[in-house]
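Retro notes (design track)

What went well: tokenization of the new backbones is finally stable.
What didn't: we kept losing track of which sequence belonged to which structure.
Fix going forward: every design gets posted as structure first, then sequence, in one message. First example under the new rule, 363 residues:
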């Protein structure tokens, strides 16, 4: 097999290896998938203004996220059901993340439990939370997450209802019978039976609390001391409300284009959110990051770090833990090279002046 020279190549390998139903579940976006294409395309409308004759023999990529020092500002977004990609699933991802010295966010909808992931060894891990109608389920989950040593909660706020992913509907997507949503084992939520016609969408719709509002954020803050990141903010308005509600940080995300189609790419709205935050909380981004140059562009627009989703599940499918390690290493190498060629020796040297945005450029 020819050497994989960039992160995107893992998608083709995963497509070959995975059953169609699984590949489609990982790859797809909502409805027309306009936002899905836009998430990656928008990065190509940002160009560099590199500075020259700066000694770049030493590059420091270390980042600080909620007080935790990590090796680079490249982290792992929560993606559900990773054992469909590889038998070691989330545990392989967790090992790869800690080997790379970076943070992994574990999905609530994982096929390995929080305890299993914690038992893979040391590592800085956050937990992605969705709020279910039964608050006892949520509270018990939060307690387990705290006990397992997770350091923060990423509260998903863009998925009270699931976006329509048409390939999942066509494929009648269902979790393969040998797998379960481990965090809910023993609870009603743990078993996902085949649901007629609309597959996963109907199932989740029945469990997630559609009444979720700002008062529930207060409730969550009252039951845990863990810092809470808000995942799924796309506007200045919500950024300001989130900060009033004492949120620890924001992840600018459109859920990998799987929820509301025709929202802008995350990289296009990042600066709006950064400006509204006025440096009061860190702003992160996920969606469409496939290159080290993308990471640099997000940081130049004010992000404190980025998260990757699909690149992790595709590399996991291709080569398990080794695949995920390679993806993290590739992005790291590309990001380092981008810093060097732009004349930046540390993250704090990456500024808005290092890029030009050409949002109105022809597509
Ligand atoms: C996701 N995402 C997601 N988000 C979340 O809050 N909880 C979850 O369980 C999941 N599950 C999930 C599964 C799959 C297969 C994908 C592709 C995405 C969204 C994810 O955290 C992140 O926002 C995007 O994946 C980032 O975009 P890229 O890197 O995939 O382009």
């Amino acid at each position: 097999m020819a050497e994989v020279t960039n992160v995107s190549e893992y998608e083709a390998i995963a497509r070959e290896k995975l059953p169609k139903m699984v590949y489609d579940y990982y790859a797809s976006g909502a409805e027309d998938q306009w936002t899905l294409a836009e998430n990656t395309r928008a990065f190509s409308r940002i160009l560099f203004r590199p500075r020259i004759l700066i000694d770049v023999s030493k590059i420091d990529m270390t980042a600080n996220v909620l007080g935790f020092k990590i090796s680079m500002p490249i982290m792992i977004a929560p993606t559900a059901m990773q054992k469909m990609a590889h038998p070691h699933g989330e545990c392989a991802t967790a090992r790869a993340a800690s080997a790379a010295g970076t943070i992994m966010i574990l999905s609530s909808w994982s096929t390995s439990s929080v305890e299993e992931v914690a038992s893979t060894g040391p590592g800085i891990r956050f937990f992605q939370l969705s709020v279910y109608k039964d608050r006892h389920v949520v509270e018990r989950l939060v307690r387990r997450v705290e006990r397992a040593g997770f350091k923060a909660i990423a509260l998903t706020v863009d998925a009270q209802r699931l976006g329509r992913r048409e390939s999942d509907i066509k494929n009648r997507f269902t979790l393969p019978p040998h797998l379960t949503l481990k965090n809910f084992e023993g609870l009603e939520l743990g078993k996902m039976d085949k649901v007629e016609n609309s597959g996963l969408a109907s199932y989740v719709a029945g469990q997630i609390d559609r009444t979720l509002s700002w008062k529930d954020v207060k409730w969550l803050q009252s039951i845990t001391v863990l810092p809470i990141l808000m995942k799924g903010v796309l506007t200045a308005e919500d950024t300001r409300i989130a900060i009033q509600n004492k949120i620890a940080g924001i992840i600018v995300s459109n859920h990998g284009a799987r929820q509301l189609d025709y929202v802008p790419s995350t990289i296009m709205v990042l600066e709006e959110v950064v400006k509204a935050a006025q440096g009061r909380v860190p702003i992160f981004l996920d969606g469409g990051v496939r290159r080290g140059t993308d990471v640099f562009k997000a940081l130049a627009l004010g992000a404190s770090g980025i998260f990757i989703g699909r690149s992790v599940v595709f590399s996991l499918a291709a080569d398990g833990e080794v695949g995920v390690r390679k993806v993290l290493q590739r992005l790291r190498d590309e990001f380092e090279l981008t810093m060097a060629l732009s004349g930046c020796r540390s993250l704090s040297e990456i500024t808005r002046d290092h890029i030009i945005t050409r949002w109105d450029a022809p597509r």
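Added context from the reviewer: The chain is about 40% helix and 15% strand.
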